[in-house]
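Input/output pair, single chain:
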Amino acid sequence: MATILVTGCDTGLGAEFARQYAKDGHRVIATCLDPAADKETSATTGNIEVEKLDVTDHAAIEALSRRLKHDEIDILLNNAGIGRPHPPFGETDYVLWQRILQTNLIGPMKMAECFVEQVGRSELKMMAFVSSRMGSIALNNSGGSYAYRSSKAGLNMIVKTLAVDLAPRHICVLALHPGWAATEPGGRVAVAESVAGMRGVMQRAGRHHTGSFVTYHDQPLPW
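Output:
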């Protein structure tokens, strides 16, 4: 039985990660902004522990790490993020941009720093970050979405750099694209399918895959 720490389990991908891992008998530490209102994750059966956490609150991340300092965390799954809205050029909301960067970019880095010891002691030794193909500079042919794109491009750089820095500790670091999941109107990939695919990628990944940027169906993406 592995221990998986998942951020952003209030809804969508995070709640589904918690559901699937718990159903398979793993211990899940699911973090939510508001556990009292989180009916999706709290209703999941299995070995699941719900923790209140806002990844923009660094003191709260440090406190959670201290509470779990004796645990082994096989997979640190940084899923929490803000996807919308996408103001067009000329209508940039800079306060929103800062909030997106704090959530999508800086929060995951803080999680990595605070939980590296727990991951390093585990058997699986994995850090996975839910990114997006919209963070790929090479694939940007449509423009727009400045705040979201920049947050995910920055996250990809963190993944690549962590892969180098944590290689001596045999920690595998991955960036995962969930597809256009049906967590929002127009999404084409069922949430359960997306999560199952990303879980499969992580399960198959070896240490030589560290620093990879791949889709939920295990296809490499350009940076």
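The beta strands are 3-6, 27-32, 48-52, 75-78, 126-130, 172-177, 212-215. The CA atoms of residues 41 and 219 lie 29 Å apart.
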